[in-house]
Design a protein that fits this description.
The structure holds three protein chains of three kinds. By secondary structure, chain A is an alpha/beta fold. Chain A has twelve helices and twelve strands. Chain A has one domain: Thiolase/Chalcone synthase (Peroxisomal Thiolase, Chain A, domain 1). Helix content of chain A is 33%, strand content 20%. In chain A, α4 crosses α12 and α7 packs across α11. The model of chain A has no long low-confidence stretch (mean pLDDT 96). In chain C, the strands form two sheets. Chain C has a nine-stranded mixed sheet with strand order 3-2-4-7-1-8-11-10-9. The chains are: A alpha/beta, B mainly beta, C alpha/beta.
Chain lengths: 355, 175, 385
């Protein structure tokens, strides 16, 4: 395999609602900043890949306008996934592996605030038997959390601890949306939103965009002083039906993590995209990260998805947040996670290393 | 909005296959026009047609989306006032109904380049289908002033004006 | 460095206006199972599933690959969903091929589908967004003015589009899977069909179809063990440009010209019209055959209509185009591009049945989408590169 690295990362601040700017207007400054950071213009990249969702935008072909932000002229070699930008990064990484590109621009963007997000997400479910019941995304996650609690997989206190940790970390991250310091007991005193989930157990609804530049071998070293080399990147999808999955673990995360080689060295930093606290705990366990405080892994130093959740960009941002800490020398080895589908149906794991 | 139009069979006897079910979907969205389009729409609310100039090649975009798709630069705040007269660069006579288009059939869909602009506006023409042709000079017909809102629908349609056709070479790059 | 990759399995559903006998999972599974049978392998032999389709609003399911995971044997496997507008079927094949060419996977399943009967495509394409007067009625409304621009520019005779439609509809009579099979097809039948989006007539447009198409792609070490004829991928290419900018040539976009040049360079082709034996081109409105003959550099600018006129693109012509009947005869939108790629592969494998071009060895598969701004193409050959 070729050595491919993340060599640049930019994001817009995660906000509850981009009141005035449309998607292209959110994306343009992100791509401009990435160009300034790396010295490489998006349109000059050998390959470009993006992730977005028509249902979040409320219209068909929402991704087409993204090309306006890139300045795709002369015409570019380009593709799009109807998935989080983390999977767009995977496609771009494959393209570089093929030897058809040395550099690739990857971006993801979404404005979930435009619609009723939990209800929109119901349209992911089986359209014949499940979706007509309109189970919203929070209720679906609540079913999983209830299973985890009743099966003794985890406790509400552990969930609250995850909620508190991520928002406390986010106080150091000016791009995060939820930034606060509350005790576990304060969180446990909150009323239930969708029993057993409290509001603090849920990721916020966020608008935003992020972008990453990938480069191979020596080109990566030219662009970035300390590239974040991709040592493993894998993704796995489970069946959608909750009845055929073990909801008390994230088997797809575990398979992807094993294939990506997460366990073959010390992990300094982990950035997780789980939108609910119990899911974050399941992902931590699937990655083999220890939960006790003596663990050397810093989980979600940015605050993770629980502090800022711009769908279609949030997974890509986790890879970027992880890479940033390798750029700066804060970390030598990290793991980033992205997810899609109800109750952690589909998961992507990316292992990054500095030299 | 609503979709999943699955009209057809009535609920069937239970010894028959279910081949269709009807599941109406309705989702509401709050669109943001965007900073640049808002400026354009505030203009059209006042009956003004505001374009924006690309700082790289000087070309005037109307309607403007705030940045140049070719050069990836932002346009800034400056606007260019445009005439409501223009030239039809190409057109189609539409005889297909569409649920979202409130026009009687047939109607004439036109790509118009306004005088002073360097991009096309898609709109409709009020004319006999036999008379429409490329290069035709046209002018906007506006709704009554009291009905103006932040929408290109303030222009009811375009209508032919008594000017000689534009020369093909003048507008061919906009096709 | 790229692994050689071959198309070893091809499956297609019967294309119809309404496949009431199949759900969405049933539809994709039907195509996938046929591809597996053709490839003589089982679900367990597949390393990853790549799914493509056009906008989610067409069926009212958000990211339908999630609920189709099991139907496609994708449980606990990698699954990727591609969406690049109308070119998506082609792009899906290219992304799937890259998974093998990169050495990441050995054997992948590539599927594209559309079940248009479960929603309303014209509605999904013409959502009444605020702030503007909706005037563009579906894809035909968008493309008809461009067709008029082509006619003006090329001086093509007005009946060129009719001739393309007659040719493709005659070809469809040789393809048992085609949706529209008009036994009484004639020049007059097309000429007298209603004008929908002037200058485009009813029988010059594509239908709305339900259907799915699937491919099994394999690396060289696996494919070389096979004794049957395969379709080896010689080159793939994708090019995109923005929808609208000042002076954009929408009739003959730079992206199609760049796509063609790069594709032929990768495939080592210098004289495409002579070296390529046949082509499946994305022609949703008949006039796009002459337009893309120029756009794919098969002929000189403004000369594409002559190929139609001279019969060059007919099944027995020197450059047969859309032997299967093309998009004009079957149009499950998200799958339409993949069907072009699959039919090109069938030709070089010599398994195209009644619409086989004798001795075809090298074929072009083509798809485009958006406002004539996304292009994806491949060259397949019966011999290894």
């Amino acid at each position: 395999m070729r050595d491919v690295a993340v060599v640049g990362f930019e994001q817009s601040p995660c906000v509850r609602r981009e009141q005035n700017r449309n998607e292209v207007e959110v994306l343009v400054p992100v791509l401009r900043a990435l160009r300034e950071q790396t010295g490489v213009a998006g349109a000059d990249c050998d390959f470009i890949c993006s992730g977005s969702s028509d249902y979040l935008a409320g219209q068909s072909f929402a991704f087409v306008s993204g090309l306006d932000a890139v300045g795709a002229w002369p015409p570019v070699s380009e593709s799009h996934v109807e998935m989080d930008g983390a999977w767009a990064l995977y496609e771009a990484w494959v393209k570089i592996q093929m030897g058809q590109a040395e550099t690739a621009l990857v971006y993801g963007f979404g404005k979930p605030s435009m619609g009723d997000l939990p209800m929109t997400m119901a349209l992911q479910l089986d359209p014949y038997c499940v979706m007509p019941l309109w189970p919203d995304a929070i209720s679906m996650a609540g079913l999983q959390a209830r299973h985890c609690l009743d099966a003794g997989v985890l406790t509400e206190r552990e969930m609250a601890a995850a909620a508190a940790r991520d928002r406390r970390h986010a106080m150091q991250n000016s791009n995060a949306q939820l930034r606060w310091d509350r005790s576990v007991d304060e969180i446990l005193a909150e009323p239930y939103l969708a029993n057993p989930l409290r509001k603090s157990d849920c990721a916020p609804i966020s608008d935003g965009a992020s972008a990453i530049l990938l480069a191979a071998g020596d080109r990566a070293r030219e662009i970035c002083e300390r590239p974040a080399w991709i040592r493993g990147i894998e993704h796995i999808c489970e069946p959608i039906d909750l009845g055929v999955r073990d909801l008390g673990r994230s088997r797809s995360t575990q398979i992807a993590a094993e294939k990506a080689g997460v366990g073959s060295g010390k992990i300094d930093v982990a950035e997780l995209s789980a939108p609910f606290t119990h899911q974050e705990i399941l992902v931590e366990r699937a990655l083999g990260l220890s939960l006790d405080s003596s663990s050397q892994t810093v989980v979600n130093p940015s605050g993770g998805a629980l502090a800022g959740n711009p769908l279609m960009a949030v997974g890509l941002s986790r890879i970027g947040e992880c890479a940033s800490r390798i750029f700066s020398g804060e970390a030598d080895r990290g793991v980033a996670h992205a997810t899609s589908g109800p109750c952690l149906q589909q998961n992507l794991i990316c292992v990054l290393e500095g030299e | 909005m609503s979709d999943r139009q699955m009209d057809g069979d009535k609920p069937s006897e239970h010894d028959e296959d279910v081949t269709l079910l009807r599941v109406p979907v309705s989702l509401d969205y709050d669109y943001s026009a965007g900073v640049s389009a808002s400026r354009f729409l505030r203009g059209i609310e006042q009956g003004k047609l505001l374009g924006q100039r690309c700082p790289v090649d000087g070309r005037v975009y109307f309607p403007s989306r705030g940045s140049c798709p070719q050069h990836a630069v932002t346009f800034g705040d400056e606007t260019v006032d445009l005439s409501d007269k223009g030239t039809i660069v190409t057109f189609s006579i539409v005889r297909v109904p569409s649920a979202n288009i409130p026009l009687e059939l047939p109607y004439i869909a036109v790509n118009v380049v306004l005088d002073g602009a360097d991009t096309i506006l898609m709109h409709v023409l009020d004319a006999n289908p036999e008379d429409v042709h490329m290069g035709m000079r046209v002018q906007a017909v506006w709704k009554p002033r009291e009905e103006w809102t932040t929408s290109t629908a303030n222009i009811l349609y375009f209508r032919a004006i008594d000017e000689p056709d534009a020369d093909y070479d003048q507008y061919k790059e906009h096709i | 460095m790229a692994e050689l990759t071959a198309v070893v399995g091809i499956g297609q559903t019967k294309y119809e206006a309404k496949r009431l006998d199949l759900s969405m999972p049933g539809l994709v599974r039907d195509a996938a199972e046929k591809a597996l049978v053709d490839a003589d392998c089982s679900w367990a032999d597949i390393d990853a599933v790549i799914l493509g389709k056009a906008p989610d609003l067409f069926e009212g399911v958000m990211m339908p690959e999630l609920f189709l995971n099991e139907a496609l044997g994708g449980a606990y496997k990698p699954m990727l969903r591609v969406h690049t507008a109308g070119s998506v079927g082609g792009s899906t094949a290219i992304v799937a091929a890259s998974m093998v060419q990169s050495g990441v996977h050995d054997r992948v399943l590539c599927v594209a589908f559309e079940k248009q009967s479960e929603s309303n495509a014209i509605w999904a394409l013409t959502i009444s967004a605020p702030f503007s007067l909706a005037t563009v009625a579906g894809a035909g409304g968008y493309f008809a003015p461009l067709v008029r621009g082509y006619i003006r520019r090329s001086g093509a005779p007005e009946d060129t589009g009719i001739r393309v439609a007659v040719k493709d509809r005659e070809n469809a009579l040789r393809n048992p899977l085609a949706h529209l099979r008009l036994e009484d097809i004639s020049f007059d039948l097309v000429a007298n069909s209603p004008m929908l989006w002037d200058p485009i007539r009813y029988l010059e447009t594509c239908p709305s179809s339900d259907g799915a198409c699937a491919l099994v792609l394999e690396n060289e070490s696996l494919a070389s063990k096979r004794s049957n004829k395969l379709a080896w991928i010689h080159a793939t290419e994708m090019r995109s440009e923005p929808t609208m900018f000042s002076g954009r040539d929408q009739v003959m976009p730079q992206a199609t010209l760049d796509n063609a040049k790069n594709l032929y360079k990768k495939a080592g082709i210098t004289k495409p019209r002579e070296e390529i034996d046949c082509a499946e081109i994305y022609v949703p409105f008949s006039w796009f055959e002459p337009m893309w003959m120029e756009g794919m550099l098969i002929t000189e600018p403004n000369q594409g209509w002559k190929m139609t006129y001279e019969g060059a693109t007919a099944l027995d012509g020197d450059f047969p185009v859309n032997m299967s009947g093309g998009v004009l005869s079957s149009n499950p939108i998200g799958a339409s591009g993949l069907i072009r790629f699959a039919e090109a592969a069938r030709q070089v494998r010599g398994i195209a049945g009644e619409h086989q071009v004798d001795g075809a060895r090298k074929a072009l598969g083509h798809a485009y989408g958006g406002g004539s701004q996304y292009f994806s193409t491949w060259i397949v050959d019966s011999a290894k590169p």
